């Protein structure tokens, strides 16, 4: 058990050491050994995340690794809490990070200096945000991941990137200030920053302070919704994501999910612990925003001509779907949402990488047709030719279009792949809940099904445009194994999750049951004081 | 004192929000700085306003009521450092955008 507690900090330490090691190495761009070292660090992170998840899975449903930093007494010092939800998030991040890093090490990392340290710093911030059990520490990790993401959004330079990164930075700075206001209000009314302690203290807040506390929670919620890309706070997202370098955009696919995670964690912890009308505080808002985000993302996907743009709108659709699930507030729907989170993140990451491969192989004139050049792609970088030897893979075109088809099926939620299972789990448990289906049930069902249709239409349209009309006639394509490999692995994981849906769903169901039981979380973090 | 502080926070926030919504990047960065001052003051105020009270306990049997809450001061310190670093970073991006687009409009369009 003590070993497991120490595992909780490793997903933060490994990328931190990796980032520092990179800064000490002078030339990161050309040396093959440095590239290998970075892949090694990322693989180590993946190993640690797997160990953490396995350790948690083996030690019971309510197990969590609690790591008090500096061994301060728990409500006063900062604490890391790795429960199953955090471990799932960390593992998804690690898988995506390794895939994106391997992809980047074929070509992209040498485009500009300091790719690897920024990349590891972003991973560290993400893992920290998932693992921390302290509200202010969550802010610090948010800033860490944002600082790294600013650098990565600018990675490669060019007018487009600088312009969209500038908007991104301003919006996130304002969101950070909202975050601070929310944290300050919550501290002022509960007198603590530890999440479990907040959950414990909330039922005892004086009636006079309750309004202030709810205002704080609402302000904090807005900060999270901005990061989650919820309508109408999402306008930075499509520009930033489609302008970012593809491996960076792939890792950004998990960044919006940090907002979803924070809302899920805090809302379940704080408000599910209350009784009466306050237990559903903000639920309707989340549902409405979720539906609006899904609708906006679907329409945006339909209107996208370029694949990177389309992938950005698919991120919005998945963000909206997850918000819907949080707003619905039932363990069954949360189970489906967790499954959806994993597959949608992996598929979106794969799609961003796939877009880059397609950009490389499409003839230039086809790209002019496919992309609205004057808006988004006016300063494509000069491709420095073949640092890594590309070789002709037989049936390369088939492989790419198969990858595209799998990504499309997963994102649209069509059978037999995992996207369908996720949506089916959400809809079925929403309809089969104890109480009769209400308005919210029909909205969530409708949003999930209709958005699937929209996504399918837009994916198919893009696929036809790329694979049937634009590919070179002779069908001979050159692919780098280092680039197509990670995509295949990411999509294969989606397929594996569909095959192993039974055990995976069981695990997610236990996780969801734990999320919906704030008392269990409080017991673990504050064993001695939960009786108060 | 409450009124003074509330007015200060309100004026800083209002000016900051107005400036952030302006089209020039320099106005935006000044606006962000003003908002960050307002937020820092706000965090301090959430530890309740106290006069003549130290934030650090001294002596074994000190009465906590004689002291002001130290946590918001620690939070403010962190918030100041992070806000300062982010503003500095934004300044660099602002200059890069100025160089690449040739003007200081936030959309790079100019007039």
Automatic annotation (TrEMBL), chain B:
Q: How does it sit in the membrane?
A: Multi-pass membrane protein
Source organism, top-level taxon: Bacteria
Gene3D superfamilies xref list: 1.10.287.3510
Under InterPro entries, the record lists:
CPA3_antiporter_subunitC, NUOK/Mnh_C1-like
Q: Which keywords describe this protein according to UniProt?
A: Cell membrane, Membrane, Transmembrane, Transmembrane helix
Q: Which residues cross the membrane?
A: 26-46, 74-97
Supply one GO CC term from the record: plasma membrane
Localisation per UniProt entry: Cell membrane
Give the PANTHER family listed for this entry.
ANTIPORTER SUBUNIT MNHC2-RELATED (PTHR34583)
Please report which protein family the annotation says this sequence is part of. Answer: Belongs to the CPA3 antiporters (TC 2.A.63) subunit C family.
Name listed for the protein in its UniProt record = Na+/H+ antiporter subunit C
């Amino acid at each position: 058990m003590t070993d497991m507690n120490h595992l909780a900090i490793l997903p933060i330490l490994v990328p931190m050491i990796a980032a520092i090691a990179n800064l000490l190495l002078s030339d990161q761009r050309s040396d093959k050994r440095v590239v290998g070292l970075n892949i090694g660090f990322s693989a180590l992170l993946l190993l640690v995340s797997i160990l953490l998840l396995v350790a948690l899975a083996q030690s019971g449903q309510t197990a969590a690794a609690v790591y008090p930093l500096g061994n301060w007494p728990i409500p006063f010092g900062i604490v890391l809490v790795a429960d199953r939800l955090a471990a799932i998030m960390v593992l998804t991040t690690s898988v995506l990070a390794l895939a994106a890093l391997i992809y980047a090490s074929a070509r992209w990392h040498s485009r500009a200096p300091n790719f690897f340290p920024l990349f590891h710093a972003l991973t560290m911030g993400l893992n920290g945000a998932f693992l921390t059990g302290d509200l202010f520490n969550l802010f610090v990790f948010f800033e860490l991941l944002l600082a790294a993401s600013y650098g990565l959004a600018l990675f490669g330079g060019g007018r487009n990137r600088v312009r969209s990164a500038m908007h991104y930075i301003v919006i996130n700075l304002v969101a950070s200030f909202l975050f601070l206001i929310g944290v300050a209000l919550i501290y002022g009314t509960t007198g603590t920053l530890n999440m479990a302690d907040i959950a414990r203290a909330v039922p005892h807040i004086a009636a006079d302070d309750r309004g202030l506390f709810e205002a704080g929670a609402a302000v904090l919620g807005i900060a999270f919704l901005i990061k989650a890309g919820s309508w109408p706070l999402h306008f930075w997202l499509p520009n930033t994501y489609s302008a970012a370098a593809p491996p960076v955009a792939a890792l950004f696919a998990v960044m919006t999910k940090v907002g979803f995670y924070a809302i899920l964690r805090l809302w379940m912890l704080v408000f599910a612990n209350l009784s009466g009308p306050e237990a559903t505080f903000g639920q309707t808002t989340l549902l409405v925003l979720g539906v609006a985000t899904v609708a906006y993302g679907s329409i945006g996907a339909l209107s996208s001509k370029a694949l990177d743009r389309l992938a950005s709108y698919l991120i919005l659709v998945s963000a909206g779907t997850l918000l819907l699930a949080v707003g619905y507030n039932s363990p069954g729907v949360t189970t489906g949402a967790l499954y959806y989170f994993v597959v949608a993140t992996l598929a979106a990451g794969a799609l961003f990488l796939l877009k880059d491969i397609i950009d490389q192989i499409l003839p230039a004139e086809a790209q002019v047709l496919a992309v609205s050049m004057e808006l988004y792609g006016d300063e494509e970088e000069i491709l420095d030719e073949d640092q890594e030897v590309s070789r002709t893979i037989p049936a390369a075109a088939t492989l790419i279009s198969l990858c595209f088809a799998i990504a499309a099926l997963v994102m649209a939620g069509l059978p037999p792949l995992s996207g369908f299972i996720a949506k089916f789990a959400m809809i079925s448990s929403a309809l089969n809940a104890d109480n009769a289906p209400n308005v919210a049930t029909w909205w969530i069902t409708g949003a999930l099904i209709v958005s699937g249709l929209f996504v399918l239409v837009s994916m198919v349209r893009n696929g036809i445009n790329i694979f049937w009309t634009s590919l070179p006639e002779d069908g001979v394509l050159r692919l780098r194994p280092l680039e197509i490999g990670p995509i295949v692995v990411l999509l294969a994981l989606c397929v594996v999750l569909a095959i192993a849906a039974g055990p995976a769903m069981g695990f997610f169901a236990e996780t969801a049951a734990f999320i919906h039981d704030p008392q269990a979380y409080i017991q673990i973090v504050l064993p001695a004081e939960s009786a108060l | 004192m409450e009124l003074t502080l509330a007015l200060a926070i309100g004026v800083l926030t209002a000016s900051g929000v107005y400036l952030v919504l302006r089209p020039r990047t320099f106005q935006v960065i000044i606006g962000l700085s003003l908002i960050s001052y307002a937020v820092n003051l706000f965090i301090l105020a959430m530890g309740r306003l106290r006069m003549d009270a130290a934030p650090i306990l001294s002596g074994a049997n000190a009465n906590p009521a004689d002291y002001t809450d130290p946590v918001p001061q620690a939070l403010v310190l962190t918030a100041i450092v992070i806000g300062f670093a982010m503003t500095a970073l934004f300044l660099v991006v602002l200059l890069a955008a100025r160089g690449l687009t040739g003007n200081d409009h936030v959309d790079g369009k100019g007039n």
